[in-house]
Amino acid sequence: PGTLAEFKDLHTYFYTEQGIVKSVNGVSFRIGEGETVALVGESGCGKSVTALSMMGLIEQPAGRIVGGEIIFDGENLLRDGGKPVHRLRGHEIAMIFQEPMSSLNPVLTIGEQLMEPLMEHLHLRKKEARAEAVEWIRKVGVPRAEQLVDAYPHELSGGMLQRIMIAIALCCRPKLLIADEPTTALDVTIQAQILDLLRTLRVETGMSILLITHDLGVVAEMADQVIVMYGGQVIEQAPVLPLFRNPQHPYTQGLLKSRPRLGQRVDRLYAIPGQVPSPIGLASICRFSDRCEYAMEICRTREPENRNTEKDHSVACWLYEEGSDIVRSVGASQR
Ligand code: SF4
Ligand code: MG
Known about the structure:
It is a peripheral membrane protein. The chain is α/β, with parallel strands linked by helices.
């Protein structure tokens, strides 16, 4: 598919009293038209900050995008101090969060919250916007749309609210939906329904999805491409099948070994000992070296770069340095 969006060497830092937190430290990947790209990793690896950078939602003044580009539809969103983001947000790029209650307005009805973007971005008149709002409530599978259009958020269940969030995000027909842990707060049955809904709407609208998740079960069901992040960097990326069949980075192998099912969170299952590195003052080493069973001398003195091992599969790990014998022995021990 053609490219819809591209992150190029993105750096987003937070300036704290303890030091500079390099939450996103040189992240590059692309999102194809109509593709679902999953950003995977433990809490604190930089997934959400990557997405928030695209949405222009990095909290100032502590947080700052200090380098790189985010291209969307041929335009660098970061130019002019991020002005293009403000034009496109909620319209061409929309986002849904884990907690619908925190992003819905408690004093406005469901209908009003749907009508607002329809009137602002699609310039519908009030009556048309209301009809369209009812239609969207129906489309996301919420019953009694005619009545619920006048209900307030507290009158709906968590699963219903998540559907309403999806309706609000999609009603202006965005080209890209960013979904940050969209089902983590929901019980397993509702999760599966919401994922089904997202898949159906993706096919219907042709939108791309940037899916942020801990949950490899969700990745397996939803993603075309997988980007694995660790310590603010991309350490492996591949289409979903090669990544699950032949994970190359020791971290990815560890994530997959825990074989989580739908609804389980990787950060609770994760079996590799040790902690996610503090992103303060990291030296140029492999960030995974103190948790890696294959760590070598070079891992603690030089940072591995992403290199292609297959056409669409790249990994940042010294084991895959060209001509390395270690590659073969690790590969063999996998089988
Ligand atoms: Fe392990 Fe070295 Fe690869 Fe890092 S570069 S993941 S320490 S083998
Ligand atoms: Mg997060």
